[in-house]
Task: structure prediction
Amino acid sequence: MIGPTVENLIGAFLSPRRSVRRLIDGGHGVDAALLMVLLGYLAREIFVLITPGIQPEGAGIALAEYFLGLIQAYISFGFMTLVVFHIGRLFGGKGTFQGTALAMGWYLLVISIFTPVVLPAFVEFVEAAKVAVESPDTPVVVPGQAMLVLTVSSCLMLWLLAAYIAELHRFARTWNVLFVVIGLSIPISILASSLMPIA
Result:
């Protein structure tokens, strides 16, 4: 079980469409997708705990926050599954709802591997932005390495998402799906931010 899983994780980057097709055709149910979401969430939280510089010093572990984070992960998974299924069908896709759940669960598990690389870069970028806001007279220092890491990681994650969706719905060209994903992510982000409560 562990061997094939590790092999498929490697294939998720080297041949993403083949990896997700193997998963969809493997006879797994939605329960497998839910398990992958859980494993992805646990992997991210473990990486947060063991990666230096992410958590503030003296930060404690609150089980309630972990349960809340897991609920949010499942809500995000459900939203992604519905959007990818219905919009893919709208464009003539052939993916089933179960297959979509498996593909999105697999995607969330795969991108959890990026956590120890992306989070430190994000923290560095946020800290630089805070310094710029708190000290406007100080010259703005853009963390070039952090920006490069975030840019490359974001591009790779978008490419993986497009590849999984393309294979799920049997679309021939991954690039076309990538352009649609980028185009739709902007209005969806604006809608999501507008629905967030104002503190």
User: Anything to note?
Assistant: The chain has a mean pLDDT of 83. Helices lie at 2-14, 16-24, 30-50, 63-90, 97-111, 115-134, 144-168, 174-195. The CA atoms of residues 162 and 179 lie 9 Å apart. The two ends are 46 Å apart (CA to CA).
